[in-house]
Design goal:
The protein is of the alpha/beta class. 41% of the residues lie in helices and 16% in strands. The strands form four sheets. Strands 2-10-9-8-7-3-6 form a seven-stranded mixed sheet, with helices on both faces. A four-stranded antiparallel sheet has the order 11-12-15-14. It has a two-stranded parallel sheet with strand order 1-13. A hairpin with a 2-residue loop joins strand 14 (428-430) and strand 15. The longest helix has 18 residues, at 33-50. Pyridoxal-5'-phosphate binds next to helix 8 and strand 8.
Length: 462
């Protein structure tokens, strides 16, 4: 091989250590030497496969730059703050409920050493969930309560705690899949119980449950269908009827409310089950999520009778499903806010759902005006929008909102560019336009969103 040929193609690619020398202090300090070296190795291997035999090999500095880009892309996949301009209040992919200021402060306070399982009065071991459980019970008008990692865990624990090795009776109209891999029959099997289906998809009566009760019945389970609605020729048994049936046969009754409104504070706005009513009807346990309509951290709450809660708390699975200290802290702060006020506006989910049309219209107008001022060439208008609550709450329930429509030549590319901003702005694309729904945008984010829009406008080179 001649000397000239030697400088061409893969043979002349720099070594890892030569490129690493280029990394000097900055990237090595930022990522660590091992991580940078790995990225350089990956980049060199890509070049080795792709570089043409007669191409000039890139300089070590170019290899390093490409390796850093590769790392940035990888790092970008971590959890980062975004601006939710979709209008979907409980957005599962964006972390469901944004925490209140009090809940955020509680998380920070609990992130060091904290009284997670420590009683300051006696200096002895305390219970992780006793306090949060009694707050939940008080809020819902129940005798007892506890909390686990999420709603699915609450259901699993209720099934295992009350009906392991026995039968669980469920209506065929409620054998739901909530999302991802959360399917009711699988949860019941995982809890060590056997599913007994009753009724039909559209109609199930109390008599159907009654005829399924036998010596092996461990539990009657009612599940809120959450993310879908049965309409038309339908019938279902009321929780109160099932409770009466359960009492008659000494079988516990559990209601999985899913989102669960605490009180009827949002009556007329949402038609989700009201936890206080369900507890009042005498169900042994009512289950609901911490990060749906409650507006707190990911958690599953169980409230009901002392006996049922005790059986769940002592079930061996409870340890595996337990809630983490940061969740406990945020949940306490969230429950306290609900105890202080029936409509706690300091909880973002509650505030956003109750936002007045005038407030939304004013915020949308302000955003449209700001964008129009800083990007005069943009095709922007303030519009009325239909939205959804999200998170499986109130499906099919249209929520009127307001926002800004930005028309451009390529809306999905525009939306993609908005996702690359810092912080990323997540929007809806409809009918070839980008829609920014202000229900989920905070007042202090309006300027940030407007600036991001200006930077991403296809017609603006600034
Ligand atoms: C959302 C939901 C669950 C699951 O709750 P996660 O907190 O998401 O685990 C269970 N049951 C019902 C009825 C739900 O709506």
């Amino acid at each position: 091989m001649s000397e000239a040929a030697d400088r061409l193609g893969r043979a002349s690619l720099p070594s890892v250590s030569v490129v690493l020398d280029q990394a000097a202090a900055a990237p090595i300090h930022q990522y660590g030497k091992r991580v940078i070296a790995e990225a350089i190795r990956a980049e060199l291997s890509r070049l080795r496969n792709e570089i043409a035999d007669d191409a000039v090999a890139p300089e070590p500095s170019a290899v390093l730059a490409a390796a850093v880009v590769r790392l940035e892309q990888l790092r970008g996949r971590g959890v980062q703050r975004v601006i939710n301009a979709t209008g979907v209040v409980i957005h599962t992919n964006l972390g469901r409920a944004p925490l209140s200021d009090a809940a955020r402060e509680a998380v920070v306070a609990a992130s060091g050493y904290a009284t997670v399982e420590y009683d300051l009065v006696t200096g002895a071991r305390g219970s992780r969930t006793a306090h949060v459980g009694s707050l939940a019970a008080e809020l819902c008008g129940a005798d007892a309560g506890t909390a686990v990692n999420n709603g699915a865990a609450a259901l699993l624990l209720a099934v295992a705690g009350l009906a392991r090795g026995r039968e669980v009776i469920v209506s065929r109209g409620e054998l739901v899949e909530i999302g991802g891999s959360f399917r009711l029959p699988d949860i019941i099997a995982a809890g060590g119980a056997r599913l007994v289906e009753v009724g039909t998809t559209n109609r199930t009566r109390a008599a159907d449950y009654r005829s399924a009760i036998g010596p092996d019945t461990g539990l009657i389970l009612k599940v809120h269908p959450s993310n879908f609605r049965l309409i038309g020729f339908t019938e279902h048994a009321d929780l109160a009827e099932l409770v009466a049936l359960g009492r008659e046969h000494d079988v516990p009754v559990v209601f999985d409310a899913g989102s669960g409104l605490i009180d009827d504070q949002a009556a007329g706005l949402l038609d989700d089950p009201v936890v206080r009513e369900a507890v009042g009807s005498g169900a042994d346990l009512v289950l609901f999520s911490g990060d749906k309509l409650l507006g707190g951290p990911q958690a599953g709450l169980l409230v009901g009778s002392r006996e049922a809660v005790a059986r769940c708390r002592t079930e061996p699975l409870a340890r595996a499903l337990r809630i983490d200290k940061l969740q406990v802290a945020a949940l306490e702060a969230t429950l306290l806010a609900h105890l202080r006020s029936p409509v706690p506006h300091d909880i973002p989910v509650i505030r956003m759902l109750h936002e007045e049309a005038d407030t939304l219209r004013a915020r949308a107008t302000s955003l449209a005006d700001t964008v129009a001022r800083i990007a005069p060439s943009a095709d922007v208008s303030m519009v009325e929008l239909g939205g959804v609550v999200g998170g499986g709450a109130a499906p099919g329930l249209p929520v009127t909102s307001f926002g800004v429509r930005v028309q451009g030549p390529d809306a999905s590319r525009f939306a993609g560019d908005l996702r690359q901003q810092d912080p990323p702005v997540i929007v809806r694309v409809e009918d070839g336009a980008v829609l920014l729904d202000v229900r989920t945008i905070l007042d202090e984010e309006v300027q940030v969103v407007a600036d991001a829009v200006r930077r991403c406008l296809p017609s603006d080179d600034t």
